[in-house]
Structures are given as structure tokens and as C-alpha cells.
Amino acid sequence: MATENQPIPLPVTAVTCLEDRAHIERSAEIDLTAGVQRLRLGPISALAVDRTLHAELTGEQQATVLDCRIVRTWTPRGPLPSADDSALRLEIRALEEERLSLSHRRDRLIARLDLLGRLATDLLRDIAEGTGNGETDEPRWTRELDRIDSERDAYGEQLRAAEARLTALSGELMEARQAIELSEEQPAELIGHVELTVQAADAGPVRLRLTHLTSCALWRPAYRAVLDEDALTLETDAMVWQRTGEDWSDVRLTLSTARSALSTDPPRLAEDRLTLRDRSTAERRTVDVELREEEIASLGPAPVLGLPGVDDGGEARVLHSAVPVSVPTDGRAHRVPLTAVTTVASSEYASSPELSPLVTQVVRFDNTSGHALLAGPVDLVRGSGFTGRGTLDFTAPGAPVELAFGSHDDYRVTRHAEESRDTTTLTQRTLITRTVRLHLSRFSAPGEQGEQLVAVRERIPVSEVSAVEVRLRKEACAPEPDTVDADGIARWALRLPPGGQRTVTLVYEISASGKVAGL
Questions:
Q1: 3-class DSSP assignment, residue 80
Q2: Residue ranges per domain, the chain?
Q3: In the CATH hierarchy, which fold is given to the domain comprising 87-183?
Q4: Could you give phi then psi for residue 130, rounded to 5 degrees?
Q5: What are 93-111's pLDDT values in tens digits?
Q6: In what order do the strands lie in the sheet with 400-408?
Q7: Strands (DSSP E) along 268-368, which ranges?
Q8: pTM of the full predicted structure?
Q9: What angle do CA 341, 342, 347 make, to 5 degrees?
């Protein structure tokens, strides 16, 4: 069996980026000889999933893939220095050699000083013994002591200089190693190659297509909305991250919301046990109620903490890039343009004083992009430039879209709420009357003209039990709400001239029978 040792390049030609991984497609033209042969292709990312590796051969020549596997090799950096090292590495080597030489010199100086100390001790003992025996040789003793002291001073000064230089060398070495770690140090790399065993009836060229999954790649949708009077331009982009170990250069990029990791997991079954019991006498006499805050929302996935997934409305969506894309393997976010559409938009100023004292510009338009808009962040741009960042929910093709383009400082809204409670003696019925007053003011710049329409919304409780009734007192409201929907949202359309003020009064009653407890 013939074996090809030189690796054949196998570049990435197409990528399907999923929610938390990527499906890689590679292709190459290879020349086969008749018979069975083993080819070495690559290098490829070492993060490739072995069980997803698939290879197929196409062309006029009849060829069959007998075996396909990934072989990974570890290539650490050589430990020995070479003449091709950079100036920083050569400097580190010189500093290490100098530090080693100074360490040896310091050891010799310490040994010499220790020897001089023992010599001085022996000389002083000789002087003491000679003096006790009546011998006096003062000139010799003085000369020897002076010589020992001068040598000790000289060697001591050399030792202090060597230790100071060693301390400085340690600091220089630490700085040089930090610099080389940031600039040149490369960790050992794990590289993968594909070993392909094929059998060909005749010699000739064939086309190889190889696919596999790889981790460390993901994408999320992102948008840019530009408002120009009554026209809105919505640009759909994809933020792509990848750290697979190899660059994607001029590849056909496809973005998919399919979750391949969950395709083989069966749904989990949990026990749901129901128990029936008779109500007690006290429970029959009373009805427990409570005020509950509930968000008005449509069906969709529940929000999760951390990095959000791709909200596709429960159906796998596929988007394509119109031009080839290059994404380096640096782990950073890269913005890939997908589509751009300009449509007619309507705008209004809206306020919900119970939630926020701000008046926000809300823009409404239809999704005419031709594809579903996945949930993601939106960069908001209008005439004055970048105004902030919002959130776009999942929107089907042709469905209406709402975007908030930030608040306006020209308006101020204050809210005051009052409550009174009364209980009738005969029927023990509780009557709660709530009065909400909204004060809306417009502070306009000098010379500004024209009225502006502001939509003000306030909520009214909605009862779910017959024992509690909620009634809007229209005769006490000033002005009466324009509309009140089934969710209890009252809406007023107020026109304010420059410097104008308006006051809205909302009055409603909550009536509960004597059996109700909890209000």
C-alpha cells in the first residue's frame, strides 16, 4: 500500500455556524494512483469531533474511501537555544550566563573572607600566647594584622558589589521574561491531521469533500436600526466568535439555529401527582385572593441567565451570508452583514408613568426583510447619531415590530395615587376606590412650534374570580380613557403644545364580597 507522507492541504471552504458549535466543510483536488493508498491531509483543528468525520470522493475516476480518521500530534517548543533566536532571547541568555558567573564569584569571595577570618583568629591567638610567654614581636604582628584587615575590606567590597549586581540582574531577568512571555512565547500546539485510506481502480484526479463538527465556535444575531423621519433601515448582522485553532478565510458562511446537541436527547418524564380532598368549613366560607403582578407576553421560550441562546420561535432557522466571509481564530466578536431593508415606520411618544417617569419615542414597522427576525440586541441610530441599544424580540416575517428609540428630555411626568376603603355594615362588602392622577408637562426650546401627540398608559386590575369586581368610574375620570383593553390597560392620546401641561385622572373601584380575604 502506497503511503503519502507529505500532508495535502485541506482548506475550509464552507462553515455552518450553529448555536454552540460549527459544522466544517473542506474540499480539495487530489491525484490518486491505482490501488490502495493512504493519504495524509491537513493540518486541521485538533478540536474536530472524531465521530462526525465524513469523507466522500467524487469525479470521473472510481474510488472508494476505506478508512478516515484524525491523528493528533503534540509539537512542543525546542528547549535548546539556536542562532535564529531574537535579540530578546539572546539578551536573556547573556543575563543568565552573567548571573551564573557572578554566583560563582560570590561563592569564592565568601570562602576567601571566611579564610581571612580564621587567619585573623589564629594570629590573635598567636599574639596572646606570645605575650604570655614574654615574647614581643610588635612590628610583625602589626604588619600581619594590617594586611589581613586590608584584604578583608577589599574582598568585602567586592562581595557587596557582586550581591548588588546579582539583585539588579534578577530584576532585569524578570522584566525580560515577562516581555518575552507577552511577545514571543508560544505554547506547545496540538495539531490534527486526517489519515485517509482510499482504493482507486485507475489513476487520476478526484474531488474530496470532508465534513466534521468542531467546538469553540458560536454566533448570535445583532441588528442596527437607522431612523430617518418616516423611513427606517434595519440591518441584520451576525456576531461570530471562533477559537477553533484555524482561520476561516473566504468561506461560505451559513448561520443556523439548529441544536444538534439536543437532537438525540429524549424528553424527560416527570411525575405529576394530583390529590383531591374536600374543603373544610372555613375554606367554604372564605375566598382567598391576592394581587399578582403578571407580565403581558406572547408564547416563547423562558428567559435564562447568562449568555442567551438563539430564540428561533421553536423552528430551526437558516440564514446565509451573500459574500464569502473571513473569521480569524482570535476568540473575538466579528460582525458579518446578512440583510438590510428599508421600510415605512410610524412613530409616537409613549409614557407609562407607573413604570417610568420618562416619555419614550416608540417606532412601529412591519418585518419586510423576508426572514424571521431572531431575538437580539439592536443599535439605535437616528438623526443625532447613536442613541443607545435596545432589544428586538422574535418576529415572524410580515409581523409588526416595536422599537423604543430612547427618552426625550422635553417631557416630565409625575404620578400620584390615592386609595380609600369602605365596608358596608349589612352585607360586609368591601369597596376600595383608587384615584390616580398623572401630570404631564412639555418643556420646549425657544421657537419650537407644533403640537405633539403623547400616548399615556395606566393599568387597571383585572379580576379572575366572580367574588371580586373591578369597575371603571367613567364619570369621575378626566378625561375618560380613549380605550381600555382586555388586559386592563387604559390609554389616552394627549396633544401637548410647546410649554403645555395636561392632567389625567383615573378612578376605578374594586368591590369584594364579605367572603373575600386578602385584599
A1: coil
A2: 2-77+188-214, 87-183, 217-262+309-408, 411-517
A3: Helix Hairpins (1.10.287)
A4: -65, -40
A5: 889 999 999 999 999 999 9
A6: 400-408, 359-366, 346-351, 452-459, 489-496, 483-484
A7: 287-288, 318-320, 325-327, 334-344, 346-351, 359-366
A8: 0.68
A9: 130
